[in-house]
Model the fold of this input.
Amino acid sequence: MELIITLLLAYLIGAIPCGVVLVKLVGGEDVRKAGSGNIGATNVYRVAGRKLGTMTFLGDALKGAIPIAYAIYLAGMPNEQIAMVAVATFLGHLYPVYIGFKGGKGVATACGIYLMISPATAIIGLIIFALIIWRTRYVSLASICAAIFIPLINYGIDRDPSLLLASLFLSGMVVFRHRENIKRLKNGTESKFKV
Done:
């Protein structure tokens, strides 16, 4: 019963649309109706500025970290259950009940999840992300590259099959959610990140 409640709460926490909430709090327009229409940090950055974009990233990462921190440090769950909590949290972000199940792409939330499950994996993933952005200025490409490498890195560090399965799911969904970006990258029409 505790696991079921934890999974439900993990989903509901993951479903909090930080970007939408933060922009509305300052009286801005609905980010779903501006820019790319995405609720994530990159679109908030473009639509509402650096400060709110950064806050959105931190908020999305935090909501990824909180359920995992509970599962590990308070509930003392085994890795199999921690992996389930990670997936529930992530699905909350992708398909949030509060805004019609149309969520973000999951990069920041996955970052928060990995910071709790495997800090070394999160740090290496962030380094890959930063290097790709520095070299290309494409946030989407950086997200996709980090997502592809992270399951391998995580398994190399932790050697846990259940966490590997969760990692493969998270990464697969991140790449899937970037499918339109992949088309634009191929066509040379993808927007570059402007500092």
Summary: The chain has a mean pLDDT of 95.
